[in-house]
## 1
Amino acid sequence: MKVFKALTIAGSDSGGGAGIQADLKTFQELSVYGMSAITAVTAQNTLGVQGVYPLDPEAVAGQLDAIGTDLPPDAVKTGMLFSGDIIRIVAEKVKQYEWSNLVVDPVMVAKGGSPLLQEEAVKSMTAHLLPLALVTTPNLPEAEILTGLHIQSLKEREEAARILHAMGSRYVVLKGGHDPLTENVVDLLYDGHEFIYLESTRIKTRHTHGTGCTYSAALAAELAKGKSVTTAVETAKAFIQAAIEDGLNIGGGHGPTNHFAYMNRLRRFGHDQNDQ
Ligand SMILES: Nc1ncnc2c1ncn2[C@@H]1O[C@H](COP(=O)(O)OP(=O)(O)OP(=O)(O)O)[C@@H](O)[C@H]1O
Ligand SMILES: Cc1ncc(CO)c(N)n1
């Protein structure tokens, strides 16, 4: 049996709901062997981020070399990268090892507002990493910072997606979780030719810690299995919808999404997603 491998390059969330921990749980649920390169350690729980401890860029490079020389991943995702220096090292290693199935989740701030990316690193993200991305998955505030646009209408979302595509990302998923105005959550997928809208019911819950990480990890896992971007985006959307619906009421603040929910439902309906 072929073993599909996915790598997450991201920060550690001690509370286990976002970052590396969310990514590895998601890979595992989707039957993909998970590997990690940690960029920063955060002291974090459902109440917020209490500390951020970035790793030396050399430590990030060392982890990527260890993986690149022995365990070539079938897909790679990036999450919290924290600094321009780390972004440059990651971009260099992605090129060196020719990791073409790259999902860039341009993480900037945690839900409570704590910065997870230094302001001056945004330029490195657009200059060095987006041109290497197969897919980038910004939320609305991240898309505004990356493009400089103020995004309100659907037309402006399409314009932002066009700009991100022109920056080099072959596909763009503009996530709509942060849009306070719409009853449904609308994500926009753009491949450089057409716009596909993925709409789902907005779940009213405060247990949304780690939604973005879990979503991009599910996308990377499906790409690792050889799925097309469109199919991988659809599965990732179903995965996150189930994970938010069954969100976990643990801790005193924003609880994490439920990484078991999607596969539990499929098992209940008597088929394994990996048979499809
Ligand atoms: N309340 C909700 N109900 C249904 N789907 C949601 C909800 N909130 C987010 N999503 C979905 O979850 C995915 C992640 O979107 P979101 O905009 O929350 O990402 P994010 O802001 O990057 O997450 P994070 O804050 O964890 O970094 C998207 O597919 C989005 O449509
Ligand atoms: C480590 C980490 N990465 C990403 C996010 C964004 O949800 C977070 N809160 N923590």
## 2
Amino acid sequence: MTTEPVGPADASTRPRYTDIATFARLPRLDQVERADIAVVGVPFDSGVSYRPGARFGPAHVREASRLLRPYNPAQDVSPFANQQVVDAGDIAANPFDIAEAVTAIERAARELTADGARLVTIGGDHTIALPLLRVAAERAGGPVAVVHFDAHLDTWDTYFGAPVTHGTPFRRASEEGLIDTTASLHVGIRGPLYSRQDLRDDERLGFAVITSDDLQDEGLPRAIERMRARLGDAPVYVSIDIDVLDPAHAPGTGTPEAGGMTSRELLGMVRALAEHRFVGADVVEVAPAYDHAQLTAVAASHVAYELISAMAPRG
Ligand SMILES: N=C(N)NCCCC(=O)O
Ligand SMILES: [Zn+2]
Ligand SMILES: [Zn+2]
């Protein structure tokens, strides 16, 4: 006999500001038999090229997620009622050795998904998408369509000779054959690049682009249409760098760029992924030291909530 999923703490009997924070006040993994979706933190930021601090992202997002409620009217779904969602705690990663950290993240992600659970990972800097994509492609049995929300391409080659950084995960992933190069795309791209060649390399690595300006010029419905057409029915991995939002919506991040999406636009695009086949997702680059009034962490926690809602079984 299957048991009902264990949901979040009841805010009407235990005020939502009580207790040690788990994501959305959900049970911990060790408090339930098994999970359908595990929210896991990766407090790692040794791959950053500018402001550090995303290692404190997971705890900050959990704190800001206390106000999330169990019914999501925008998707007409109760995301914690028909699937077991848990907080799996943090993956510990070596801050002094990127290669070792990446191996540890990959190993932990493999273990957490061994019984079919899917991950919603809270970063951490964008480096962590590489080991997460390795495991996602393994679970999908082949390359996955990546929807990558970001101000940045993150398909650069190296920084100071380092091949694995937060600016390079999608180039490495493409080289490793993890990415479905007919179905992947970036959304929200903007800002200065190193040269025009960056865009040519990016296209060759398998990405289409919906820029931040496209969203402004063509509107959300057209952007959603383009995204869904590109994805087709491929298995999808969603990677959300919170700096895709305008710094007005998400100041707490390491490499901010002016002219970004609103949180309403981002939530709308994530909701539109509901009918797609999710392999996993991440929300990265929340750096609390540059945040104000939990603005960035509230945005990140709501984006994670929409992801979990989009992953919930329908009908
Ligand atoms: N925020 C992420 N993931 N990448 C930004 C890298 C930009 C740069 O240093 O050129
Ligand atoms: Zn970025
Ligand atoms: Zn990024």
